[in-house]
Amino acid sequence: MERWPILGTEVHFECTKCGACCREEGLLVTVTGYDITRLSLSLGLSASEVLRALDFYVLPENDNAPLGMRGIPTVITEHGAAYIALRKMENGDCIFLSDDLCMIHQFRPGVCRSFPFVFHEKDGATRWGLSAMREICPGLGTGPEITADELEKVSSQIIRELSLYSDFATEWNENEVDPKASALIETILSDPRFAI
Length: 196
Known about the structure:
By secondary structure, the protein is α+β, with helices and mostly antiparallel strands.
């Protein structure tokens, strides 16, 4: 696994369970088809119940994706191309944050599992770096050194899930005649690619 030049030879990290990343108003927890399916199955939620835990962030036409969203696919809904993310409460907290603890920690989305690290593939090599929001994380720089093997394990799952979701999003965007958010969630939950 190739490192981005911004990083030195050692990175230490240990989650302090402070909830800062779950409360950060400017941090969207984007979800993939796998994340949506895990949420549905783990909590026993129907498609309409899952839909209430999500938000669809629509970009104005001809607007560039924010830096942290590049590489995340949008899906067409009745309101236009949108990113799917966990819903935020009025105060900026994730809908699944309670007393600084994640209520869905065991099956949290890939973005949460990998934070504060980010991954992408380039020229057949997996690269990793730190989130643009890394300054909110008090666990970065503390705890044990994160090994290349640990990063490889997380990155391979994250990249695989994102790749399958990107394929799904392309198919949805090209083939759906009447794109609606509710039908999108139902389609994701019935798609065998996201079977858990």
